[in-house]
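During the second year of the project, the team shifted from modelling isolated chains to modelling whole assemblies. The rationale, set out in the original proposal, was that interfaces cannot be judged from single-chain predictions alone. As a representative example for this report, we include one of the complexes processed in the last quarter. Its constituent sequences, exactly as entered into the pipeline, are reproduced here:
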Amino acid sequence: MQILEGEGVTKYFGGLAAVSNVDFHVDQGEIFGLIGPNGAGKTTLFNLVSAALVLKSGVIKFKGEKISGLKPYQICRKGVARTFQSVKIFPNMSARDNVSLGALFGTSKSIVSASPKEADELLDFVNLSAMGMVPARDLTLVNQKRLEVAAALATEPELLLIDELMAGLTPTETSEAMDLVTRIRDKGITIFMIEHVMKAIMGVCDRIMVLHHGEKIAEGIPQEIATSKKVIEVYLGE
Amino acid sequence: MDITRFTSKRFFIPGIISLVILIALATLPLYGSLYSVILLTTILMFIILTVSWVMFSGPTGYLSLASAAFFGVGIYTSALLLPNTGAVLPLLVAVFIGGLASSVVALGVGALTLRLRGIYFAIFTFGLVILILELLNWWEHTISHIRGRFVMLVGNDTIFYIMLAIFVLLMITTYLIRRSKYGLAMQSIGENEEAAAHRGINVTMVKVLTFALSAFFAGAAGAVWATKLTYIDPYVAFSVLFSFLPVLMAIFGGMGQIYGPVIGAAIFAYLQETLQTKFPYIYMLIFGIVLILAILYLPNGLVGVIPRLVRRLRKGGAAKQNANT
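Output from the structure prediction step:
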């Protein structure tokens, strides 16, 4: 079943087509990767799905229901959570409050007060169990990224958009992050991720889509992408 | 970890102190002089303006300069409902409607302008004060041909008690919001609005509703204040000082704690009143110096001093060399 579909998704910045007539779909339960050179329109596509930006044309559907045109908070409550390329957390709140906030506002239920136990479980899930009371600004980059994932998970998503989780991490941290992505999928959450670290994306993804200058140039299983002539040309030059 | 003792101590002592202060204030007209009642009414009015400003601008970081507009709308509403020729409505109802009118203005303005960020929002809200002021001026000059309005006389004690009631209501509201999930939501908007939106917070609604709620208290205070002024005109009602003073008072007191703006506004307003009577010629000079010193040496406001003192006392002689870190 397709959990997320996009048809003719297009976005212009001035005269430049940042995302141009892209059709894509994400199947339920898979890890779907999105790669492409810098400026290819990957993050723009994420911004369109999460409604940080408004579509120029095309339609985006979540579980068969049109979500393009909704506000970011509505999309979050429908079950699509995201993280950001440059970590977006609440620096002066404790790690636990960062997570609780997602649980309080991001789910489809209406909750009056946060459950510290749930927040702690999620912090534990991303290996931050000892950091609950630490202000988010005092965490290291890798821990801030994990915290952002935990906060996104607190909104009880069915689909999680992860934007460059592994950028700036050490090899050990990268393999931990890959493990985290797999464990999130094992919880039954579908993952749509942007990544530059090839080893990571080839290792965890079920399918991969390649964008170049806002257009989709390839889509397929990792082996197909790794051997695609067009993709190699884009990445390495002719 | 003895969490229960920690929390009960944390709520018990401030609770007792608040209660004692409240009782002292409530019984003031019985033992205090007329002057002290009038002075405290003024101080309470400034506290209400400051705390209601902090309610919205503190956590969200949106610098609103609309306090004077909300205050003035309250003043004019009350002048319309309580003219000196005889009250149209009971005093308390007029005060409530004054607050409501300000809320409605805030709802409209908020829905239109809370997309603006930073300096643009500050300028727009300031412009709102001038706009209403000039609009009323024009109305009184060319349409109604009546300059200003006389407001019904109300006893000083009554004005004091209504002001006190608004203050108590405001403090309870502020406390409940800070403890609720909406307090957390507002803080998240101030820290990273985009992230807040993507965590499922309807940022527009939270901002507009809080803005309107904070305006209610400023408007209600204005409605009572009008009965103290007895004569009002647009320049009295929409003085821009009422936009800037609450901001200064909040910074002076410190916004980190719930009682910071209260203490800031109380001391600030008291200083203003007493310096003005004792040193009428150089009071602005003294006042300015006090403000500059406070901002230079107390970056977290007056209440920022308390945790520093506590820390210093706790460390005591054991680690004196670390005390100044």
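Residues 15-322 of chain B form one domain. Residues 66 and 125 of chain B are 5 Å apart (CA to CA).
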